[in-house]
Amino acid sequence: MENYSYLSVLIAAPFFLGVLSVLSPKSLQRSYAILGALALFLVSLFLCSNVLFSTTPGVVIDQKISWFPAMGLTLNLRLDSVSVWFVLLNAVVCLLAFSLSGVWNRKFPRLFSFLGFSMTGFLNGAFLCTDLVVFYIFYEAVFVPMILMIGIWGESTKAAAVFKFFLMSLLGSVLMLVSIFYLMSIYHTATGRYSGDLADLITVASKDPNAQWCFFGFFLAFAIKVPMVPFHAWLKDAYTMAPMPATLWMSAILSKLGVFGLIRFVLPLFGAPLAEVQPLLLGLCAVSILYPAFLAIRARDPKTLLSYSSISHLGFVLFGVFSLSPGGVAAAVLLSVGHTLVSAGLFYILHLVEVRRGGLRLDTYHGLAKEYPLLFLIFFGFILGGVALPGTANFVGEFLVMISAFQSNPVAVVIGGLGVIFGALYLLRFYQRLGFGEVTGESSGRDIELYDVIVLIGVLFFVIILGFQPLWVMKGNGT
Amino acid sequence: MSLMNGDLFAPYWILSGGILVTLILSMIRVETKRPAQISAITTLLFTFFAAEGQWGVSTTSLFHGAIEISSFGMMILILLCGLGILFCVGSSRYLTKEGIHYSDYYHLVLILILGSSLMAAAKDLMAFFIALEVLSIPAYTLVGFRRNDSRSNEAALKYFVMGSVLGAFYLFGCAMVFGATGSTDMSAVYRWSQQNSRPELLFLIGHSLLLIALFFKVAAVPFHFWKPDVYEGAPTAVTGIMASIVTVAAFVGVVRIVHLVDYQAAGWESYAMWIKSSLRGLAVLSLGYGALVALTQTNLKRLFAYSAIGHTGYLTLGVLSSLTQSQNLYAIWVYLIGYSLMSAGIFILMGQSAPQADAGVELIDLTGLMKRNPLQTVVWGVFLCSMAGLPFTAGFIGKYAVFTAGIDAGETVFVVIAALCVVVNAYTYLRPIALMVMRDADPQAAQWSGSVASKTISVLIALAVIALGVLPQQFIVQLKEISLSH
What we know:
By secondary structure, chain A is mainly α. In chain A, 73% of the residues lie in helices and 3% in strands. Chain B is mainly α.
C-alpha cells in the first residue's frame, strides 16, 4: 500500500514544471503556471491519498535515497499525518499565488513562474525530509526565490526589506545549522558514524547536557521564521514591500515552515528543555497574539493589517505547539490548515480589490460593496474565517489549542485569548471601512471573474467543511 | 629512493618542459600571443592527465627525500592545472582590452603553477622555500603587469617587499628549526618531535617564524594588510590567480608547516595548546575583520579581498580542527577546491564586466545587469550564493565540511562565531545581487564583453560550483582518502 519510490516526485515535479514554464511562451505564462500548479496539486493529492484517506492512524510513507553518505546525509523522505497537510497546502498556495494576475503582466513572467515553482519544490523538500541537514538545505533554499521575488517585483523601497528579511532568517538558521552539527557530532562520538536523521539524533539529544543550547538554536530559527513577537522585526517591511503573490506565499506557507519545523523536529528532539521553558514560551505566544493585534488595529494600510493579523493568529498555532500535548499539536495542525486557507484567501481578495481600485488606504476608500457585491460576499466568508466564527476550521482550531494550553499556563491563555476579540475588532472594522459608505475614487474593472469565484469558493468550502469535520485533519495526530 | 624513480616525477617534468617551450614561443613571435597561449594550455592539459594517471600512487620519496610523490601532491597539481587552464583560456580578451596581453603572461602562470604544486610535494624545508619563491616571483611580476599604472606598480612593490620580508622570516625560522632538530627534512623533524618529549624554546621560535611567514601568504589578520591593495592594483585576471591558485598553494603550505610536529606526542600538550590558541585567535580575527570590513566596500576587487580574508578565517578554523583529528584535513581541501573554483569564476567574470580598460569594477557598475544580461546575472548569482555558502553550491559543502570538522574537534564556540560571520558575509554578497536585480539598468554600465571562450568558461565554472554542491559524495570520498604523510 505504500508507494515507496514516489515521494521524491513531490520535490522533483515542481522543478520540472518550472523548467517547462520557462520554455513556454511569455504571453501564456499565467495559464501555464496555473495549469502546472493544478497538475502539481493533483499529483500531490494522489501521492498523499494513502495517508490522507487511510482508516488506520499513524500511517507513514517512507522513501530513503542515499545522497551523500560520506557525511551521513540521506534523502530520507517521510510523509506522515502532519506533513501530508503541509504538502497539500503547499500545492494549493502555489495555485492561488499563480492565479493572482499582478506580476504576470509586469517584467520577467518566465522567471516568476520558475521561481514560484522552485520555491514550491524546496518547500516540499523541507516538509518531507527527516534528515536534519537536508531539511536545513531546503529550508534555507526557500529564501532564495523569495528574496528574489521581493527584490525583482517588490515596491520601490524594497532593499531594506530584503536585507532585513534575509539576514534575520539567516541568523536564525545558521545557529540551527550549528546545533544540527553539534547533535551530529555527539551522535558520531557515540556510534562512530555520521547521521543527520531525526530518528538517530533523538537518541543522543535527550542525554546531552548541552541540549538546551541546541534547543535555543532551533527555536530561534523557527521563531524568526513564523515569526514570534520579539523576532518579528523583518515582517512588516517584507510583507508590505513584497508583490502580492509573494506576500500570500509568505503569510500562507512560509510561516508554516516554522510551525512545521517546531512540530517535526523541536518537539521530539528537545522534550526536556521545552518542558522547562514551556510557561515562558506560552507567555511569548500570548504576546505574539496581542502585540500584532494592537498593531493591526492601528494599521492604516490593508496589507499591513492583514500581515499583522496573520502573525497574531499564528500565535494561536504556537499555543497548540507549545502545549506539548498530542491534542494541542493536532489542533495546531488543524489551525495551520485553516490559517493558510484563510490568509491566502484574504490576500487574494485584497489583490483583486487592488487591481480594481489601485493602492488602498483604509481611511480613504469606501463603498466597495456597492461596486463589487459578489466579491464582497466572498470576502465576508473569509473575514468570518479570520475571526474564527464557529463553523470554520479556525474556530475549532483556536478553541482546541486554548484548551490544551490552558492546563500549562492559564494566565497566558486568558490574556492571549483576548486576541480573539481584538481579531474580530480589526477584521470586522476593516471589512466595514472598505465595504460600506459611499463609493470613492475611480472604479475600474468588472465584479469578480468566474475563475476567481471558483478558486475562492473552493478554498472557503474547505475552511467550512473542516470546521464541521475537524477530525479529518486531527485523526492521525494522536487524538 | 632517489632518481631511479624519476618517471614518477613526470608531471613536473612535463610542466617544466612546457614552461621552456612556452617561453621560447613567446620570444620567437612577440606580436602574436596565440602560440604561447596554446602551448601553455597544452602543457597544462598534459600535466593534468599525467597527474591524474598517478592518482593513487603510493607515497614515494625522490631527490633524497626533498620531494615526495603522493596522492596529495597529485590532487593539488590536478586542481592547479585545472585552474590554470581556466585562466589561460578565460583571460586573453581581458588582457587585450587592458592592453597588457603580453605572451609572457602564459609562461609566468605556468611557473607559478609549478612553484605552487611543488609546495605540496616538498618534504624538506629548503625545497619548500625554493618552491615558495618559484611561486612568488612570477606572482610579483604578474601583479605589476599593468606597468603604466601606478596602482599596479604600487601593488607589485608592496607585495614584493612584504614577500621578501616574509622570505627572510621563513629562512630565519628554518635556521632555528635546524638548530633545534638538526635537520631541515620535514619527516626528520616530525620524528624528532615524537622522540623528544620537550619542545625547546629555539624550536618554538623557529616554528612560529615559519608559521608567521605562511600566514602572511594567506593573509590572516593581523598579517593581512597587503591583500586589499594587491588585489585592487593587480590586473583582474591576476587577482583571480592570487585568489585561487596562490590561495591554494599558501594553504597547502600552512597545513604542511602546522603539521611539522606530532601534536599527539607525549610532552607536546602545552605546545599543541599554544599553537591552537594562536590559530583560534587568527581565525576569529580574520573572520570578524574580513566580514565587517567587506560590508562597506564599493570596489569589487577590494570587496573580494576582504571577503578572502574572511575565507582565510574559515580555512584557519579547518586547520585548527585538523590539529585534534588529522582526518579533518579533508575539510580544508573541500573548502579550498570550492573556494578556488568560485574565485576563479568571479574574477574571470569580473574581467568581462569591466566597463573600460584600466578601471576596476565598482559595485555600482553591476546595477541593473539583470535587464541587460540575464545570463551573466545568473552566473554572478551562482558565484555570490556560493561565496555566501547557500545550499546547493560548492560554498555550502565547504562550510559544511569545515563546521562539522570544527565541532568534531571540540571547537564549538568558534564554529558558532564562524556561523555568525556567515550572516554578516551574506549581506556583503547579497548587495551585488540586489543591485543587479532590483535596480533598473544604467545604459552606460558594464557590458558582457568577453570572448566566447571566456563566457563559456564562466558558465562552466558556475555549473561545476553547482555540481559540487548537489552531488558532493564522490568528491568527498576521494578527498577523505587523502592523508598527509609525515
